[in-house]
Amino acid sequence: MPNDPGLKIGARLYDAAYYQGNAITVRPDGWDRGEGAVVYSLAYLGLRRLGSLQAPVEASASDNPFHQVIGRVTHVTVWAYRPGTWPDRLDEHGTTWQQYSADTADLGTWAAKTKYVRVWQQAAIGGVCDLDPLTEDSFTTSVTIME
């Protein structure tokens, strides 16, 4: 199941807008630890649609109590269709897939389009952590699709 007890935080997925309706917490997959990526169908997760989501940020330990450093960012990538292969061109973003890296109260048109979802984390390196590495041409990893 999508909940790996070894990870502390996960994305909270709701089937209605504004964090309403049925919800499930999905822990990030392990691609950043050398494991394969995991994509779930909404049916597998028991959701009829994806209306809103919460993608928490995990803070790093800091010696200064007034300064928080972002340690890991939770991302949620959604697809309108079963991802047979990862998009080989970034211009497909927004057409067949979309990525969220912050709490989103209303997915708008993506609420009706989303059929598959992936939750993953990325360490905040130099403040840049907004692109799913699985969309880059040079990146290869095993992908498991749970249906």
What does this structure look like?
The structure is a single chain. This protein is mostly beta strands and 147 residues long. The chain is 6% helix and 35% strand. Strands 3, 5, 6, 7, 8 and 9 form a 6-stranded mixed beta sheet that branches. Strands 2-1-4 form a 3-stranded antiparallel beta sheet, with no helix packed on it. A hairpin with a 3-residue loop joins strand 1 and strand 2.
Kindly report the average pLDDT value. 80
Low-pLDDT residue intervals, each spanning 5 or more residues: 133-138
* Rg, alpha carbons: 15 Å
Head-to-tail CA distance between termini: 11 Å
| SS class | mainly beta
Number of helices: 2
The major pleated sheet works out as: 6 strands, mixed
Range of strand content: 35-45%
The counted number of beta strands is 9
The coarse silhouette is globular
Helix content: under 10%
- The sequence of SSEs as H and E is EEEHEEEEHEE
